[in-house]
Amino acid sequence: MYRARFSVEVRYGHFAEYLKIAEQLNEIARARGWAESTFWTPAVGAANEFIAETEYPDLATFEKEGDAFQSDAEAMQLVRSSAEHVVQGSARSELLQTAPQLA
Length: 103
Prior knowledge:
By secondary structure, the protein is of the alpha+beta class.
């Protein structure tokens, strides 16, 4: 199992707009048969941090859906429109995998 995590610091006063774009991206994912993300914010810690997590059964699915997403004009237009709501330089991504069962 793989989990992709993407986080950004949203500019003050822009959180609702950013969340709306994230929800629209999930609508596109649903329509295309891609994995949908869940959205998180810290209960304590960094203010205005937005986290999206998406689970994939394997690395091949992560790569296939990532390639399709980046080639999708509608999805990429939304991603580009989200930039005005984000603190520049705050975006980061992670790819986590299920911990191995060691002998």
